[in-house]
Amino acid sequence: MEPADPLRRTGVPVWDPAQYRSHAGHRLRPLHDLLARVPPLPSPRPRIADLGCGPGEPTALLAEHWPAARITGYDLSEAMLAEARAHAGPTSGGGAVDFARADLAAWHPGEPHDLIVSNAALHWCPGHITRFPDWIAALRPTGVMAFQVPGNFAAPGHTLLTDLCTSPRWRDRLGAGTRRTPVGEPAEYAETLAALGCETDVWETTYVHVLTGRDPVLEWMKGTALRPVLTALDPDAAAREAFLTEYRDLLREAYPPGPHGTLFPFRRIFAVAVRCT
Fold first, then answer.
1. Distance between CA atoms of residues 36 and 56, nearest Å
2. Where are the domains of the chain?
3. Other beta carbons within 10 Å of 12
4. Which CATH number describes the domain made up of 6-275?
5. What local confidence, expressed as pLDDT, does residue 176 receive?
6. Methyltransferase domain spans which residues (predicted)?
């Protein structure tokens, strides 16, 4: 697994839950597709971890699927956790939801789990594939690890962002170097999980989102990939606006609006691993 790209040099990003939710339906759809492939869990009252829970909606969806489960959502962002805690408490089937702060690079399951799930978060954890042995070992027999990560780092939205960050005007503030892809390819995930004693189901899907509104791809990126950049430029408002203007103009050319909205292809990689031993 290669380290993350130069944008990660800006440190821990400051997240904006409201901005992230601006495309909530599109962001949750892959989780629905992931959970549809999760087989029955080994325990009637399963223990579930949600790694990178964000503002809590993914964790709430897990509680709908497994209302008797005890579910903990983990995130490093206090802003996200503050929003997520609105979903904490008992569930309709006698289970419970709570939230805790954790860095996924160091998170260790403190007890056996039936399901460890992550929705669009592991790419923020450099070298996350090295954490798989620890996480798989914490699963009960026939327990499941399921995750999806973006696989679109070669798409214009990302390549243009990296090119801009490494341009002469911005490289001193935002980092310079060769772009690295912070996720593996499907075959790498399948081989790694199979070697850990799992039955694997790995696939990829490209969603073609139809976005509406003014500069919708910029608004999407402001909720995720732009967070490290915006964090690094804060509180220099003039620099922030100058960067966003340059990036906006590049995105307008790469993703022109059409008669029915702006088409935004988005490749995602999915994996469901069932522990066999």
1. 19
2. 6-275
3. 13
4. 3.40.50.150
5. 54
6. 48-143
